[in-house]
Amino acid sequence: MEQYVISGGRRLAGEVAIAGAKNAALGIIAAALMTDEQVTIENLPDVLDINVLLDALAEIGAIVDRVDRHTVRIVGRVQTTTVDIESMRKMRGSYYLLGALLGKYKHAQVPLPGGCNIGSRPIEQHIKGFRALGANVDISFGNVNADAEKLSGGHIFFDIVTVGATINVMLAAVLAEGQTIIENCAKEPHIVDVANFLNSMGANIKGAGTDVIRIRGVEKLHGSTYSIIPDQIEAGTFMLATAATCGDVRITNVIPKHLEAITSKLMEIGVRVEEEDDAVRVVATKRLGNTQIKTLVYPGFPTDMQPQMTTALAMCEGTSIITESIFENRFKYVDELTKMGANIKVEGNTAIINGVEKLTGATVCTPDLRAGAALVIAGLVAEGCTVVEHVEFIERGYENFEGKLKSLGAAIDKFDENDSRGIQKFKLKCG
Ligand code: EPU
Q1: Ligand 1 pocket, 165 CB below 6 A?
Q2: What residue segments make up the domains of the chain, in order of their start?
Q3: Is 128 near ligand 1, meaning CB less than 6 Å away?
Q4: Nearest residue to 180 (alpha-carbon basis) of 201, 193, 195
C-alpha cells in the first residue's frame, strides 16, 4: 500500500495545469464503443479509473491504442457484450458500458457498479430509462442484464436528478428508433461533453446542459476526434488547496464558468479569484472567513468538492455549516480531520465546523477519492508531518497529484508503507 507523507506549513505558489475531466472521460470512452470506426480521444486524464476502463474495453475485444499519456485511439468492434471483468465491480463508470453496448448491440451484461463508498448508490433510474426504450432489464448474480429486440424512442421523466442515469440513457437512446425525450436531467458540464462527443460521431442530441434532452435516433455513428473538457473537480481541489495554504496559484486549462459555484464561495470567505479565458488565479492572504454551504446538483456547489471545502473551513474564523444533500455518507473523513485537531461535529447530513487556529500532523486513512484529496489539503496546512494512507483512492481521479503539488512548493512524497527508511529520510529533510 502506498501513502503520502506531507510536511505541512508551506504556502502553494506558481502555476498548475488541470487534466481532462475523469467523469466526462468515463462516458466518452464507453460512447467510443458505439461505432465500428476509429475514435481518437484527446486530453484524457491518466488516472486509475480511466486506465481500468480502457483495459476492460480491450478485454471485450475493442482495439485500444494509447498513443500517448493523454490520447487514446479506440476501435470499438467488441467480441462480446458480456463484461465479466472483476475490476468493473469496483468502479462506478462501468455502468456506462450498459448504455453503450445496449444501444449498439441490443445486449449488455455488466457487473453491478461499485465506486466510492459515499452512500447508497442505486441505479433504478438507469433501468427505468432503458425499459422506457423497450429493453428488458434484470439484475441477477451481481450483474445487470439488458437486452432488446430493438430500442425505440421513449419519454422518460427521472424521479431524481442523476448524472449517471442521464448519461447512460442518452447513450442507449442515440441509436434507438425515433425520438427520445428525457426530462428532469442532470446538467453537469460532463453531460454536455458526452453529448457533444456523441454529436461529433453523428448523433442528434439537443438540450444537454438543460432539464430536457431530446434525442433523434440515428442508424449508426461514425469515427471522430474529440478533446475532453478540463476537470472541474481537480481544478476546484487546487483552488481550495491554494486558499487553505494562503497561497497564490494560477490554475490553467480550466473553463472558469464551470467553477462559478466554487469561485463565488471562495470570494465570500475572503479569497481573491481572478478569472481569465481559460485560467483562474487564486490568491489568499488571510485566515478564511466562515460560510454556509449546501451541496446541490450543477450549477450548485458540487458534492465532489464538499470534503475539500470542509477541510479548508476547518481553520476558518468562527463557525461554518456544510449540508450534504446528494450522498448520505460523505462525512466519513471528518473523524480523520478530528485526529488532526479539527473541531467538526456531524449531525445527520450536516457538518458544523468550528474553525481552529491550526491543524497538526497525524496518520490518517483515506476513505474515498475526494476525501483523500481533502486529507492531503489538511496535511499541507498542518504543523508537522502528516501521513495519508491509501493513496490508491486518490489516484482513481487525480493525475500526478503529488507531482503537481510539489511543483507548487509543497513538501509531499509518495512511499510504500514498508519503506520506513525513505519516510524517515523525507521527514528529516523537511525538518
Ligand atoms: N440515485 C438514485 N438512483 C439512481 C441514480 C442515482 O437514487 O438510479 C441517487 C444517488 O444515490 C445519489 C444521487 O441520486 O444520491 C445522485 O447520483 P448520480 O447518479 O448523480 O451520481 P453518480 O452517477 O453515482 C456521479 C459521479 C460522482 C459524483 C456524482 C454527483 C461518476 C462516475 N461519478 O456519480 O463522482 O459525485 O455523479 O455529481 O461520474 C467522484 O468523482 O468522486 C464521484 C463520486
Answers
A1: yes
A2: 2-19+230-430, 22-227
A3: no
A4: 195
Among 109, 297, 356, CA closest to 305: 297
121 CA → ligand 1 middle, Å? 7
CATH no. of 22-227: 3.65.10.10
CA atoms of 335 and 338, how far apart (whole Å) = 5
The span from the CA of 425 to the CA of 431, in Å, is: 10
**185 annotated active-site:** no
DSSP type of residue 45: -
Determine the CATH number of domain 2-19+230-430. 3.65.10.10
Residue 230 has what pLDDT? Answer: 98
pLDDT at 210: 98
> In angstroms, what is the span from residue 305 Cα to ligand 1's centroid?
14
Atom of ligand 1 nearest to the CA of 297: 38
| Non-local CB neighbours of 265 within 8 Å, separated by 6+ positions | 291, 293, 301, 309
pLDDT category of residue 328 using cuts at 50, 70 and 90: confident
Its pTM surpasses 0.85: yes
pLDDT at 383 over 70: yes
Ligand 1 pocket check for 132: Cβ under 6 Å: no
Q: Is 431's pLDDT higher than 70?
A: no
Distance CA 176, CA 249 (A): 47
